[in-house]
Every structure is written in structure tokens, then in C-alpha cells.
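[worker-b] picked up task from shared queue
[worker-b] task type: protein-ligand structure
[worker-b] ligand name resolved to fe (ii) ion; SMILES cross-checked against name lookup, match
[worker-b] sequence length check passed
[worker-b] input payload:
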Amino acid sequence: MLDISIINAYSDNYIYLLRNEKKNITSVIDPGEAEPVIKFLNSKNLHLDEIINTHHHNDHIGGNDKLLDVYKSKLIAPSYEKNRILNVDKFVSDNETINIAGISTKVIHTPGHTLGHICFYMPEEKCLFSGDTLFYLGCGRVFEGTMKQMWLSLVKLRSLPEDTTVYCGHEYTLANMKFANYIDSDNALLNKVSLEIKNKREEGFPSVPFNLGIEKKINPFLRADDDNFIKSIGLSSNNATESFGEIRLKKDSF
Ligand SMILES: [Fe+2]
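[worker-b] inference finished, payload out:
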């Protein structure tokens, strides 16, 4: 059984610290900064065995070098971003099954935000680390890939089991929630979840993690192929990629 801790970095990044007590393995996902990770590890008297990166953006890998220096950890990163992440021990690719913190993990390539972005799914733990591909009520901006690539990446994540718990790379939830409520104001489930999110944030707690089954019904970016939804928000296309692109552009200028 995995113990997952959330560490804050920068203004709204989340770093995930994975501790497998039974196997005595500690891993970190996307350490954008080293200091908060070192502080956390010191407070628990832990060594860092593995560093895992979802993509090459500095707010996800910025702490790699310092942590490698201090702990001599093993660095695992996407093979598609070979030239953009340094000092990698193991490159991983789509569909590969690897061990993270001693837990069997499937690598899912999700191009769009960056071309080489990968997510990590742990079937036994029923959890997904979605980096900057899927956010709570949102998705990453499409920087390097096409709208089609991003949509297909989200469809891949959407196909995971309903009871999957999702850990994403940023606390963007309130802004995403505002947009979701703006375009989908009659969604009763969205209204209910929004209230829960507001309460959590007001009390100073992270909004994450979140449940994928519920997310499929309330995240506008996962519903670009839902004809009724598309009509209800005033779009006319029968093409999911086009609809997704329009929703993404609407959000970008919201
Ligand atoms: Fe990013």
C-alpha cells in the first residue's frame, strides 16, 4: 500500500511524494523545486530513491539536479523528451510497465501539452498521476502538440476505470471551476462538486486528488464528443477534435 503526500511548490504546483513502507522505497513525481522535497524527507527521516518526470517543463523538473546531488536517486523520464531532460537513468515509453515506489505502473503517452508528456497509472492502487494533461475540471494548455493529439490523450485517460483517483500537476481548480460553471451552469453534479471544492480551498486544503468517474461527467474537456453537451454550450460541430479545440480556445481567452 502506497502512502502519497502532496508537497506544494512555486505558487500552484503539486509535487507527489510516494512512500512504500513495506518495500522501503521513496519516490517523487515532478519535483519542480528541490527544497520543499528535502524539507519533507528530512522531517520523516527518509532517503529519496527515485525521481519521476511527466514532462520537461522547468516547474516539473527544476529540482532534479539538486535532488540527484543530495540523494543519488534514480531518474526516470519520458523517452520522447530525451534531449530536454538531463541525467536520466531510465527513459520510458508508451504502454511500458515499470515499477514506481515498488508498485506496478503503466506509462501512458499523452502528447499535447508537450509532445513527450507521459502519465503514470497504477492499477493496484487505482491512481493516476496526470501531470499537466488532465487537471481537476480542466486540461493542460496545448503548447507543443495539436488539438487532436490533446483530445486523443484525454480520451486515453478517460478510458481508465471510474474508480481511479487522479493526482494532477497544478492547483488550477478554482479557475477551471469558474469556466466549467460558466459554460455548463445547469449541471447539478458540477454544482455539487463546485461547492465541495470551494469549501476545501477556503479551509486551505488542496482540491486534489479527484475521482475520474465523476470527472467524466463534469469536466468540459472530457465531453467534446457528447453531442447533447456540445449543443447545450452553443457549438455545432459533430467532430470531437474541433469541439475540443473550440472549448480549449474559449478557456484560453476566458
Ligand atoms: Fe507543463
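[worker-b] attaching auto-annotations
[worker-b] The first helix runs from residue 35 to 44.
[worker-b] releasing lock
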